[in-house]
Amino acid sequence: MLARMPRSEEPLNSQIFRGISPHYWEGQISGSCDRHMDVFKRFNAIPGYCFNCYKVVVEPRTVVELMKLMVVFHLYKFPDKNTRKCIIELREQVPGFYKGFVYCTGLEAGQKMLRVIRSFVSENISTHVPVLLKRGCTEYAQAFPEYSPADANFAMQYREEWQKYEEIVDRERLQLVESRDFESYDTATWTAEDARTMYGWLCYAAMIGDQSYLKISGKALPTEANISRPFRFSPPENEPGVSEP
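Given the sequence above, the corresponding structure tokens read:
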């Protein structure tokens, strides 16, 4: 039985990370993903570094499957200590409800990881959970659909005129103090912050109508009043060995 945790006025923490910090990715530029997204939001330009960023995307269909995926991400010893995370989807313009990501540098590494994660998900969660390979951030692909194909032979290439925008952002960010206090999100055990985040996941599930959360909570939970989704949740059809709560 899950104990009732106190409600907080703080923004919902939607993500749990494992693996190395993005600041320590191979060839990473100072400022990491915050810097890259700054370039994109201000100038509608995709940084050059992001053209070699690939991620395996897992789309759990219920919060129970999201929890199982997080356990896999926590326990499996990734040889390259790949950054990985599980999230509830809060971006209004992005469909879906639950996501898992494993970040890779380069297409070959991404394709190799895709095979590994597909095998894990099939064995530990379900053969029906979608697992695919994508290039870079969803926001990039929404602005430039030709950026997103994982096959580099068909995807767009970096535009040299975008270099001047990267230089502008880098000059302005010279005054920022970058913190690199930690190299890894890995922990030997689950933390109190992990527990708070997972409780938020269950309340989110209650809000969207994902009744599978009752398998974990054992009772009805309050919904997250500060968030909403413009998409309708549809529970997966029963599979062999899977039953509704």
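The mean pLDDT is 87. Try to locate this feature in the token string yourself.
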